[in-house]
Amino acid sequence: MFKTAGDFIIYDRQGPLGSIIKHALKKTDINVYRHKKISGIENDIKKQSEITFIFILFVFNEEYELIDCIRLVKLGIPIVFAPINKNCYKILYKLKGVRVMDVSASKDEYVSQIINILES
Fold it and tell me: Which structural domain range is residue 111 located in?
């Protein structure tokens, strides 16, 4: 079992990857809040003010979806980008100050990446 504990939000408009990540972390001390809408994240943060969210995992498939990130930046919570598109991943990975997670690997690999983010 993982020793890491923390709270983070998954923003995933499509749904399947966010569900897989949340399910994979079900039996850990990691609390995952999954949303398909920015308004849901905003409401969650307001309602759960006693929780300090460590980051938002921003899962997206197309570059145009990055426009949704603008509202998330205003929340003041660090964002980790998780592009499904491998080319987009390569571009974002090269940018300084941008945290990117590779979700093209196996489930164990991206769960391991989340653990590393929580521990850092």
Answer: 5-119
- Strand ranges across the sheet with 5-12: 29-35, 5-12, 55-60, 79-83, 99-100
Q: How many domains does the chain have?
A: 1
Residue given tokens 């603008």 in the structure block:
70
Mind listing the pLDDT tens digit for each residue in 36-45? 999 989 888 8
In this predicted model, what pLDDT tens digit does every residue of 18-53 receive, in sequence order?
A: 888 888 888 888 889 999 999 989 888 888 777 788
Look at phi and psi of residue 6 and say left if phi exceeds 0, alpha if psi is from -120 to 50, else beta. left
Q: Name which of 29, 111, 33 is nearest 75 in CA terms.
A: 33
Q: Tell me the pTM.
A: 0.85
